[in-house]
């Protein structure tokens, strides 16, 4: 069980709850989602509560995170996009912290489950659709008819654009889920090799050097992937929100 690379993704019930025949149990996934929100919120609150004119290191990290997401949103959606800043910043911090929490031994990676990433993706696309129709009405449908398209090609282009739009939640969720899942499985497999080979005396310990090196290398790569996937999720969210603000572009 210790070397089972899939065991780390199992959902376990911590507090069984059933309401009206529905299973609403508090699970390890639920606990780590709560922990993710608590850690991100506590860090931002504690590091910015003093509001020092000359920021310390931790306050600088919070301010850099703020400016990083704000700059990303302005570049993708313009100044009008800043109305979505709380939404995008919350998504970025949640994915970022959740990814890094999952790197610790015996911790749970909530972003390795597609139901979580798909729910986040549906939230993004739902926001785009609702705001797009609220702001532009039926003019939001211009999103599916790019400017300059010959009339004869409009039906084909509209079909392609609709399929592309509907595939966004799937692609956005699978990208994050697949990267976190594959990375953690690979890491667990190589770590399992180290443990297994070490049981065969001096020869096994010598042979474990390569998988140990690979484990360290993959761990470093996973740190990069954890940050990169949070950035990719946030920047794609900004691009999709731009469609809600400027559907005719």
From TrEMBL:
Q: Which UniProt keywords apply?
A: ATP synthesis, Cell membrane, CF(0), Hydrogen ion transport, Hydrolase, Ion transport, Membrane, Transmembrane, Transmembrane helix, Transport
In terms of NCBIfam families, this protein maps to: ATP_synt_6_or_A (TIGR01131), PRK05815.2-4 (NF004482)
Q: What is this protein called?
A: ATP synthase subunit a
Q: Where are the transmembrane segments?
A: 31-54, 84-108, 114-133, 145-167, 187-213, 220-242
Record's function text: Key component of the proton channel; it plays a direct role in the translocation of protons across the membrane.
Q: Name one GO molecular function term.
A: hydrolase activity
The record's section on Pfam families has:
ATP-synt_A (PF00119)
Q: Which InterPro entries does the UniProt record give?
A: ATP_synth_F0_asu (IPR000568), ATP_synth_F0_asu_AS (IPR023011), ATP_synth_F0_asu_bact/mt (IPR045083), F0_ATP_A_sf (IPR035908)
Principal localisation? membrane
Report the family membership. Answer: Belongs to the ATPase A chain family.
PROSITE patterns noted in UniProt: ATPASE_A
Please state where this protein is localized.
Answer: Cell membrane; Membrane
Q: Which domain of life is it from?
A: Bacteria
GO cellular component terms, semicolon-separated: plasma membrane; proton-transporting ATP synthase complex
Membrane topology (UniProt): Multi-pass membrane protein
């Amino acid at each position: 069980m210790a070397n089972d690379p899939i065991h780390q993704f199992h959902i376990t019930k911590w507090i069984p709850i059933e309401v009206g025949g529905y299973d609403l149990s508090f699970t390890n996934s639920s606990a780590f989602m709560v922990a993710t929100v608590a850690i991100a919120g506590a860090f931002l609150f504690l590091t910015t509560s003093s509001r020092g004119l000359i920021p310390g290191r931790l306050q600088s990290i919070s301010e850099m995170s703020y400016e990083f997401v704000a700059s990303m949103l302005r570049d993708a959606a313009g100044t009008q996009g800043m109305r979505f800043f709380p939404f995008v910043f919350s998504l970025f911090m949640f994915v970022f912290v959740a990814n890094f929490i999952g790197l610790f031994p015996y911790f749970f990676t909530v972003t390795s489950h597609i139901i979580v990433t798909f729910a986040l993706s549906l939230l993004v696309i739902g926001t785009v659709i609702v705001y797009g129709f609220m702001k532009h009405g039926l003019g939001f449908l211009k999103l599916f008819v790019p400017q300059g398209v010959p009339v004869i090609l409009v039906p084909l282009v509209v079909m392609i654009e609709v399929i592309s739009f509907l595939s966004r939640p799937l692609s956005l969720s699978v990208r994050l889920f697949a990267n976190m899942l594959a990375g953690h499985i690979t890491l667990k497999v190589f770590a399992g090799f180290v443990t297994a080979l070490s049981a065969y005396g001096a020869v096994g310990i010598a042979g474990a050097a390569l998988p140990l090196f690979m484990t360290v290398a993959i761990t470093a790569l996973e740190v990069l992937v954890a940050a990169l996937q949070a950035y990719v999720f946030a920047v794609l969210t900004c691009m999709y929100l731009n469609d809600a603000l400027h559907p005719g572009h």
